[in-house]
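[job 4417] fold queue: 2 targets
>>> target A
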Amino acid sequence: MKIFFKGLGFFIMLVGLLLLLKPGIIIGWMETNSDQPFMYVLAIVMRLTFGGLLLWYSKASRYPKIIGFIGIISILAALVFLIMGQEQFLGFVSSMIPGIQVYSAISAMTGMALGVFIIYAFNGKED
């Protein structure tokens, strides 16, 4: 399962790098799809899945408490989205796009740091 988390970290890092170098690609995709219901379902399912997996496998990492905390935050975010409902979520995403444009470099570097941390956390600890 460690290879999955290394791949997840690499993917997060690549998305962050893409947001840093070519923010128009990610922002354009978000603008194009910000009113699509699949965004709501995707946001919830991905956060629940990855959050649950991070929480479940946190002990296999170098930093089980931090990885577990990231998993809990991810699950809580999914629950908040569920409580918000689809219409409010889609409105929230639409309202966030201008902020992403302004802070894309900071968001990108934060995402890349998270990706690198996940790779490092699941690399090298003995099973």
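>>> target B
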Amino acid sequence: MIRVLVVDDDFMVAKVHSGYVDRTPNFTVFGSRRPGTAPLPKGLTEQTAELVKAALTDHPEGLSAMECAHATSLSRPSARRYLEHFVETGRAEVRLRYGNTGRPERQYHWRG
């Protein structure tokens, strides 16, 4: 008997897979789990997330969204979306950088 662990981020799909495995001779489901990492939000890609992560880890002093965009050849809004995703998931933090006038600039730091 072959024991199978079903891993899927959608519990309904995992249920379908479990049913299929149970109907297959010599196979049995011994558990069902969600993946260890959450999928990226719609519109974000793994390759670009890795690019932004590399830029942050290469600059321990931190980067603004504009600096990150320049380092990665992304647009500023795209870089900011990835940076904010990292902040929301606890992988990066924001510190404010104060200049002479105007609003403070958000500086992103990788937490690792």
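[job 4417] complete. Note on B: The mean pLDDT is 91.
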